[in-house]
Amino acid sequence: MSSQSTPSTDAAPNTTAATADDRLLTVRGLETEFRTEEGTVRAVDGVDLHLDQGEIVGIVGESGAGKSATAESILRLIDSPGEIVGGTVDFDGRDVRSMNEAELREFRATDASMVFQDPTGTLNPTMTVGKQVAEAVRSNDPSLSGTAVKERTIEIMERVGIPNAPARYDEYPHQFSGGQKQRIVFGIAIASEPDLLVADEPTTALDVTIQAQILDLLVELRDEFGMSVLFITHDLGVVREVCDRVLVMYGGSVVESGRVESMFAEPHHPYTKGLLASNPGLDADVVGERSAAPGRLRVIEGTMPDLTGEFRGCKYADRCPGATEDCRTAHPDLESVAVDGDDREVACYRHEEIDDIEYTYDHEPRTLSWRATATDSATPGVPDADGVGDDRDGAVLSATGLKKHFETGNILDDLLGRGETVRAVDGIDLEIGAGETLGLVGESGCGKSTAARAILRLHEPTEGTVVYQGRDITAASKAELREVRRDLQVVFQNPQSSLNPRRTVGQILRRPMKLHGIADGGERRERARELVTEVGLDERHLERKPGDLSGGQQQRVAIARALAVNPELIVLDEPVSGLDVSIQAQILNLLSDLQEDLGLSYLFISHNLSVIEHVCDRVAVMYLGELVETGTTGEVFAPPYNPYTEALLSAIPGRADADDRIVLEGDVPDPSNVPSGCRFHPRCPHKIGDVCEREEPAVHEPSDGHGIKCHLLREEYRDRVDWEEI
Hints:
This is Nickel import system ATP-binding protein NikD. It contains 24 helices and 24 strands.
């Protein structure tokens, strides 16, 4: 695979000087409506866009902006209760909207393909992957013999990076990793060598390393087949990585479009500026250094507007920090604007005054009135009335030699010695100080979540000790553990599965207080009102159930529930994964506020390195059950690195210094069959040789407290890598 990180300037078309022959897709005035019980939703409201031959165009915006509805309307995938009610879709001189069923079927089979976000939902679990790719091959060319179809299928599987494709032809989707399943979906999509590929959030749920592989694959396929790509995402770093142009959508309409680098350097719509400012790693590019409010992101207040009614003004006016009375008259039309040679289109009355429109950090210091009561402050390390605990400089929690192994197979397998040991967590040491955020990073399957659950004793550790405030909780009884769990809370990735759908928000917040005997009924209700306000919701939300809330609101409820019992430490397991960048910024700022005001400690688990860099004091990098690097955030994000850390950092999309990105081959090995020597050596870009395969590396400390487990840090091998050039 290539390590290309940005589209080649030779391959990318010059869209500012495109001729009629270059134009593949032209959309004018596209309108799509969905009829619901609440009214008619104008999901796509007069969208204009174009796509040239070999061009990758990104569509970005929050959930509900109309991105997917626009793409599905272009391919005529809208079903009842949805309907395309206006506009034209011209594909290479043909009117897609006027195609009959036979023409439409041929168009989708040969000219256009779509890749969806969730490959698990796309692939048929009852069919082998080979048959599913073969079905697409046969649909494109019915004249092929069975042997020719299989040969072509294996070629496609190999082309999209499936190792040992002939042997895996007869395997089922559940036998493939998430990244491999997405590669199969890409293989199905390119079987017809389409002119247009629509990719709808194809990397959202993937690890940063697998995401890098998929993005490289996308660019390679574009270059090889000359495809045009419509790329839908809410990840602006990904847009910077692969797209030539970008369209920003809000409330069903395009509010700004132009060349990617030009728009990232100088956005002219307040919404574009807000999205960029909300994104960790990109915000400094837009609003300057963050020294004015360290650890915080600028945020877009409010939510996407209700699209069931008529708008009396600009759709963005209620959330725009620069809105004036003129903005309340009508939604502005797209206006052509020249910005440093970029033919930009902007729908904003104040685009010429964009520098005067600033986003805030959304921060007003608050303290829960009941946080500093005599009863609740008795535990060492819990903040006093000033928000600072007595033991702030000490360790709140430490884990030493922690292991969690799982045995596979049944009783007969155990008797016959056929079972296997899955070494999910294999001897790690962690320490979290009072008021500190420790980030735990690594790919899926590295053992991050299992380690957190073992620390909390949601999984019983196989070996090792976990000490909280001087107490060994691995030896605690059930009664003692119940007491400790009041101080150790957890927020899971998916609030939809962790919140009881049958209870109201008020009941969800009061229940843990009741279980731990905190306060009486009236005091619990008052605390619930305080909590819901503290996490940025209204008291009216107390009577609603989780299903009535957005994903971001549900995650706020999950955080409020964790706070309800006055904890000392919260484990945050991918708390912002999958959220819109604007909601992500609000949640990250909220966590920063709560830590500052309440003196909380966090174990923050994530595969998003930009988020980790933004919020964490220290970082532990985990690979295949082991810690391979630990240190302060500044130390871990600067050379020298463990090669695995280096690969993770280089895979962050949209980083200005990612021209020579490292793309790791393959997936994390099976933890029931870990490699000998260094566990990372089969994938390591700096593998020395036999020493990596034979010997387990020692931990070296290039500076005090910065530990790197790698042979390259040995004196005799240090000259093999020029870390300063990485």
